[in-house]
Structure formats: structure tokens, C-alpha cells
Specification:
Layout lengths: L4 E6 L2 E6 L3 E3 L3 E5 L5 E5 L1 H7 L2 E6 L5 E3 L4 E7 L3 E5 L4 E6 L1 H5 L3 H4 L8 E4 L8 H19 L6
Antiparallel strand pairs: 1-2, 3-4, 4-5, 5-11, 6-8, 7-10, 8-9, 10-11
Amino acid sequence: MSGGELVFWMGKFEARFPTDRRYAKNHMWAAPVEGGGYRFGFSAYAVRLLQDVYFLEWSIDPDTPLREKQEIGAIESSKAESALYAPIAGRLTRFNDDLLADPSTINVDLYGRGWLFEIEGEGGELLSPEAYLLHLEAAWEVAERTLKGQFNE
């Protein structure tokens, strides 16, 4: 990673965010790829909430046109099961096939070998690292209550 990083504190745990990429509101990072488009992976915030990812599947194929927020797959971890959604509109060009064999790579190398997929698209809705941290600050209170089981209070 070139450049620096920013830190968001999730209680007593820190989540680090490289400043050499952009971020989606659904807690994915986006790094530009040669030829256009972006490579996506989970941000440290998402990985911290998910913890130990052990299952990943895709419900679409490469070369599929995508709408932003279109369901594209599912993930399971020790803390959650969740659908996965496209962070931007565009055309899905490639999955990280290595993750299907061993999704735990997400846990240990989230900003490197743990990338998820690539999408050709504009990415105008992606956030700067600083804007993403503001987004996290706005959402953290709700997330923290949910984690503590106090969501309905």
C-alpha cells in the first residue's frame, strides 16, 4: 500500500483504512485496476464485525451487468450470515476464485489477497477515506448498540 492510513476506533479495537483507495457505504474498499474499474474487498470495519469468515458464494457470473445494491452472493462468518451487494453499478469482470477455496484469506489479508471481485464502472458514489470515516462515525452508535444487544432500547 502506498500512502498512509486512517484509524477508526470500534470501542477498544482499531480498524485501519489505507488512504490509497476509496470506500463504499456497504463497507468495501475499492482500488483502481489497470484498464478501468475497481477491485473490491471488505474494509477492516466489516471484517471486525464479521470476524472469522468461513463461507463465501457468488450468485452471479463474471461479465454480468450490475445495478448498485444488486445482490451478488452470500457470506458466513462466526458472527453473521449476510447477503453481499454490488457497491457500484457496472459490469462484474472477475471474482477472486482463490477465496472460494479458502475464504479465511479475508481475515488475514483483507487489503491484499483477500479481495473479492472486480467491477468495471465509474465509482462516482465511492467515498474518500475521510468521508468513509465520517460515515462510520455516524453509523457506529447504532452498530455498537446492536453488538451489545441493545438495539430495541
